[in-house]
Amino acid sequence: MNHITEEKIYALALYEAHGLGSAGLRKLLDAFGSPTEIMEQKEEEIEKVLGRKLVTNIFSKHRKNRDGFWQDCYNAYQKMESEGIHFC
Description:
- There is one protein chain.
- By secondary structure, this protein is an all-alpha fold.
- It has helices at 6-16, 21-32, 35-39, 43-50, 52-64, 66-82.
- It has one domain: DNA polymerase, domain 1 (Orthogonal Bundle), CATH 1.10.150.
């Protein structure tokens, strides 16, 4: 089984972000380079790439319940790993 890294959790969080989609994710990766770099940006920096409305939608769940959001991502990743689904 693969080791769960912060980079993998961030990748999953971005993949699951409501409204981001593959085009938005590609824009962010082109601008910042990696899921970790994306997640370390201030919202204002991400807004420059995606626009305010999309950023508000993407980060609203994270802002409301940060610990729960990351725990959900971690749990989803563990479930995928246990089912033999690997990425990153």
